[in-house]
Design goal:
This protein is α/β, with parallel strands linked by helices and 534 residues long.
Length: 534
């Protein structure tokens, strides 16, 4: 009887093991079916725990709140409910894994006839993504979710994946040829490599032209979907041109089509996830101590990479504490008056940039007071009239501008109008140094030392402060450029490295002041060889 009982027990255990196995198989198959509709379940299923790959409840992918929210949005994109999507997330927070690897794989598995175009900053990096997608689609987990998917013979290269269903995914670098390719889904992941590329107007313009004239023309239908994943290195990047009302490329109707999901590492106001201001996005992986250390190490990089703001709110090149103000009623009386301007020159610059003219006064301590600013996008005749008005009102000793900006554009007209109006001023065109940042150093040091003062109240002050805080990553830098000519012009007056004895100026309106002003103007005229100076 005992032997029979042992045998019965063994049979029962065997039957239970088989039942467990069948239940596990059924559960796994049920989960695989769920993955066809649930994108997040698909991600976790195709990323099994290497220590226990058969346990469907375990996964290498540890999802957080922002992953779950993004997965739901991507499901809506797949259904055609969100045709235009922009996503900005900090690095290593899963955006490329979800969108550029798993989502493309999921799209093709759900419908083998779909065409996908993926683009990033260069061909090699694009091919890496293609290789990753192909690897996912070759995995046993993927084949269980989508048993009907198969590669077309010869259609599984790194840069091109073709399915037997007739669909295709191509992986290209920014500006790459996609002639003959169509897209039901266009996915662009970080088309700008780094801050250096973002700082190039040429690269930004070429990217925009490629996006508008090439990539967007490859959409198969009006209902095709576009996803942009982008680090905000610069205000004038692709996202800025598409969505920022301050951009000269902004189109209200086009901007209204885009759903923007911006999830900074530290929450700001009106967070999409409902976080409190300052709350960390993924504290389990990147805690506050880590983020604060990153911010201290590289404020500009942290602002772009982790906060998706092209420049720190408190400034980087120009710090907020550099901006000193004065009450107009209390400014010094005995000021030497100078002016400088940055002009919109050329087809693109004339269309998109402003002309900025700045009048400053310099006191006996070499402190600079910004007295007046003219800041408009205007044709040449209005610019000349504005210059004459400022010359007439303030009588600057010298007017500085970049070499060629006046002589090669408004010079003849300005000279004619100055003679007609009887308004004269020495115009000194300064040869620029290599780049804008180096030019701006001429005024940065003075501001850092508290030697530059701005009016407490002025209609242009908010805009000027914003541009200073975002330099050199702002879309426009016209005010900074004009202010830089002031700094460079004053250096020319006193000479680099020269310690100049402070002059005690006579009181304005006295005979001594008239003589001083006359002598100073004579010296300027002799140096420039003419009253107009060009």
């Amino acid at each position: 009887m005992a032997k029979k009982s042992d045998k019965d027990t063994q049979n029962l255990e065997s039957q239970l093991k088989e039942l467990d196995r069948k239940m596990a198989v059924a559960s796994r198959q049920h989960r695989a079916v769920e993955c066809r509709e649930s994108f997040l379940k698909f991600v976790k299923f195709t990323m099994p725990d290497p220590d226990d790959p058969d346990d469907i409840e375990k996964s290498m992918f540890k999802d957080a709140k922002h992953h779950r929210a993004l997965a739901k949005v991507l499901e809506e994109v797949e259904k055609g409910h969100i045709p235009r999507l922009i996503v900005t997330l900090p690095p290593r927070h899963g955006k490329s894994e979800l969108i550029s690897r798993r989502f493309i794989s999921w799209l093709m598995g759900k419908d083998g006839y779909r065409d996908v175009i993926f683009a990033t900053y260069n061909e090699d990096f694009a091919a890496d993504f293609g290789s990753d997608v192909r690897s996912i689609q070759s995995s046993p987990q993927y084949k269980q979710v989508f048993p009907g998917f198969a590669f077309r013979k010869g259609g599984a290269s790194k840069s091109r994946i073709q399915s037997e269903g007739g669909g295709m995914a191509v992986f290209v670098g920014r500006g790459g040829s996609i002639t003959g390719r169509g897209a039901d889904f266009l996915i662009i992941d970080d088309p700008i490599k780094d801050a250096e590329e973002a700082g190039s107007p040429t690269i930004r313009q070429k990217l925009y032209e490629w996006f508008t004239q090439v990539a967007m023309t490859r959409l198969m239908t009006a209902s095709a979907s576009v996803i942009i994943v982008h680090t905000r290195w610069h205000e004038d990047d692709l996202i800025g041109r598409l969505t920022d009302p301050m951009s000269p490329y902004y189109n209200e109707e086009e901007a209204s089509k885009w759903k923007v999901i911006n999830l900074p590492a530290m929450a700001g106001d009106s967070d999409p996830l409902g976080r409190e201001k300052g709350e960390i996005l993924w504290p389990e992986r990147f805690d506050r101590e880590f983020l604060e250390a990153q911010k201290r190490l590289d404020p500009r990089g942290f602002s772009a990479l982790y906060q998706q703001q092209p420049s720190p709110e408190d400034g980087d090149f120009f710090r907020r504490e550099y901006i000193k103000t004065y009450n107009k009623n209390l400014r010094p009386k005995n000021l030497r008056i100078y002016a400088a301007s940055d002009h919109a020159i050329g087809i693109d610059k004339t269309r998109n940039d402003y002309t900025v003219m700045i009048v400053v006064g310099v006191d006996e301590n070499q402190d600079i007071y910004v007295l007046d600013v003219w800041w408009e996008m205007a044709p040449a005749d209005r610019v000349v009239n504005a210059m004459l008005n400022l010359m007439r009102q303030w009588k600057p000793l010298v007017w500085w501008a970049e070499k060629g900006h006046i002589t090669k554009s408004i010079g003849p007209f300005l000279r004619k109008r100055m003679i007609e109006e009887g308004v004269y001023c020495a115009v000194d065109e300064v040869t620029p140094v290599a780049n804008k940042v180096q030019r701006a150093q001429s005024i940065q040091g003075r501001m850092a030392m508290g030697k530059v003062y701005f009016p407490t109240v002025a209609p242009w002050m908010v805009k000027a402060t914003d541009e200073l805080m975002k330099f050199p990553n702002a879309r426009h830098d016209d005010f900074v450029d004009a202010l830089s000519w002031v700094g460079m012009g004053l250096q020319r007056q006193h000479g680099p490295g020269v310690t100049k004895k402070i002059e005690i100026l006579p009181k304005v309106g006295t005979l001594g002041w008239v003589k001083y002003d006359s002598d100073y103007r004579s010296r300027q005229e002799r140096r420039k060889k003419s009253a107009v100076g060009f």
